[in-house]
Amino acid sequence: MENQVRAGITIDYTGMMSSSQNPQGFEKEELLELQNVLDQAQVTLKTRRAAGEIDFSMLLTSVKTELVEIIEYANAVAPKFENFVVLGIGGSALGPLAVHQALNHYYYNDLSPEKRGHRPRFYVLDNIDPVRFNELLQMLDPLKTLFNVISKSGNTSETMAQFLIVRDTLRRVCGEHYAEHIVVTTDKEKGNLLPIALKEGFRRFVIPAGIGGRFSELTPVGLLAAAICGIDVEKLMDGALGMDQWIRETQGVFSNPAQLRAALAHLSWQKGKNISVFMPYADGLKTMADWYAQLWAESLGKRHDRHGRVVNVGQTPVKALGVTDQHSQVQLYAEGPDDKVITFVSVVKFKETVEIPIDIDLPEDIQFLGGRTLEELLAAEQKATEYALTLAGRQHQKIILPILDAYTVGQLLLLLEWETAYMGELLNINAFDQPGVEEGKNGTYALMGRKGYEARKQDIEEYGKIRYSLGKVITN
Ligand code: PA5
Questions:
Q1: What per-residue confidence (pLDDT) applies to 2?
Q2: What distance in Å separates the CA atoms of residue 412 and residue 431, rounded to the nearest whole number?
Q3: Is 15 in the same domain as 98?
Q4: Quick one: three-class SS letters along 149-162?
Q5: Does residue 123 lie in a domain region?
Q6: What is the CATH number of the domain that holds 102?
Q7: Residue 81 and residue 30 share a domain
């Protein structure tokens, strides 16, 4: 099977295809049979893009212009603050975290200011666990901290609650200068954060209309955090644009990487593979797996298709890390239910190399490690896992990054976003909404006493009257 090679990223899908070792794999013809649907999907996606519905791709070019403003602001504030804290959840948190962890020093926050290039430490507060929240705030000096409140809707309870607490603290500690410690990233016209930002004079960046959180990493949502923490955002955008162009301009399942990955995912879904495992072999990509999980789950897990029929579709994403999860989950992947398809992500050349010392006095069984490197060991472990899964008749594929840098990370983000969009088309669902999440958000508003949600509150309380529990019976 020929591998796809273009500008950095390679997709090796050998482990998905039929061979003497893997007779259960797909035949080329099965993929070709999807070509008509994929061509139709390409036309639909093009139309939706032109209509402003697939902004993650369309906006790449316009954001490039805004990039100058982002970089200027980032360079101006970076030396002034010791800490930079993102307040946001879902797409507003996972993208910034994933890119930071992929591209900055693994222990970035522990480095000296010189080694961080005089850039602030980076924190993301997404969850509202009061212990974590307070412990972080107690650790940071508000006078030396910049908070980036990110919310597309400007309504999300978690983010708004955090914002209100932080704003209160800043007002008390920084007095009339408190607004200089807050930068807001939100919609241009809608939401409750916008009027507050305008009234109180917070610096503001815009999340373009029509873009959901999980597709917003390459907008000011992710670019601002990346630029402040010293990431080469221009290179990140170059990689994204390169991948975007490749996907938009190429036809044919064996040439277009998003069509290929979506077609493989769709075939596997049809054959009962309900679980999609994303398993990078690089610690820097660990949170990329979290970002991917949200993208795949929230975009594709849908009750209704486009005709309103109940379909209940979507593969469950599972995040794993090689080699760590070889010693935890791979047993299940190899011998448990055959309901998973695994994507390995591997890096060919790491930015560090670590040699294992030779010691001829060691027992022979560990001597073989001497003189080899940790990168070699990691690559061997990945290959061996691939082999073991093939022997077990389990399907897998691999995204190969020649190097983990801003360019390839930009490529990876766009590849995964486009394949999700294609998969949405193949499943005939809308990949760009999230009615299931909205339901939960509305429930929270109701329970917390937001005006206009009284009926829903009553409904929820009614529903909660009968409970089954062990240990104590709850009666409301
Ligand atoms: O992908 C999405 O749309 C969601 O995960 C949102 O990012 C998340 O719910 C936060 O929403 P908001 O940015 O409106 O605060």
A1: 47
A2: 19
A3: no
A4: EEECCCCCHHHHHH
A5: yes
A6: 3.40.50.10490
A7: no
The pLDDT-based confidence of 6 (bands split at 50, 70, 90) is: very low
- What ligand 1 atom has the least distance to the C-alpha of 150? 13
**How many residues in the chain?**
476
Q: Is the distance from the beta carbon of residue 151 to the nearest atom of ligand 1 less than 6 Å?
A: yes
Count structural domains, the chain.
3
CA of 237 to the centre of ligand 1 (A): 22
> What SS3 class is residue 226?
helix
Strand partners, 125: 87
With H, G, I as helix, E, B as strand and everything else as coil, classify residue 100.
helix
What is the tens place of the pLDDT at every residue in 272-296? 999 999 999 999 999 999 999 999 9
Q: Is 437 a pocket residue for ligand 1 (Cβ < 6 Å)? A: yes
Residue 438: count other Cβ atoms within 10 Å of its Cβ: 11
Q: Is 327 an annotated catalytic residue?
A: yes
Q: What is the pLDDT of residues 128-141, one digit of tens each?
A: 999 999 999 999 99
Task: Identify whether 439 is a catalytic site residue.
Answer: no
Question: Could you tell me if 74 and 199 lie in one domain?
Answer: yes
Q: Out of 217, 298, 417, 425, which one is annotated catalytic?
A: 298
CA distance 452 to 103: 44
pLDDT digits (tens, 9 = 90+) for 56-108: 776 777 777 789 999 999 999 999 999 999 999 999 999 999 999 999 999 99
Name the strand (E) or helix (H) holding 335: helix 330-335
318 and 410 part of one domain: yes
Q: Could you tell me how many helices (H) and strands (E) the chain has, helices first?
A: 17, 13
For position 70, what pLDDT does the model report? 96
Residue 218 contacts residue 183 (beta carbons within 8 Å): no
| Domain-terminating residue out of 209, 235, 261 | 235
pTM value > 0.90:
yes
Average pLDDT over residues 440-456: 85
* Ligand 1 pocket member 194 (CB < 6 A): no
Residues 210 and 270 in one domain: no
Mutate to test the pocket of ligand 1, among 86, 89, 94 (most ligand atoms within 8 A of CB): 89
| Domain C-terminal end among 235, 262, 284 | 235
Ligand 1 centroid vs 309 CA: distance in angstroms?
26
Q: Is residue 469 part of a domain?
A: no
Would you call 100 a catalytic residue per the annotation?
no
**Is position 242 within any domain?**
no
Q: Is 140 helix (H, G, I), strand (E, B) or coil?
A: coil
127 and 166, same structural domain?
yes
Q: Which domain holds residue 160?
A: 55-235
Are 181 and 85 within one domain? yes
Pairing between strand 316-319 and 396-403?
A: unpaired
If asked whether residues 11 and 82 sit together in one domain, one would say: no
The alpha-helical segments, DSSP class H, found in 392-453 are 406-427, 435-447
* Structural domain includes residue 473: no
Q: Is the CB of 92 under 6 A from ligand 1?
A: yes
- CA 213 to ligand 1 center in whole angstroms: 5
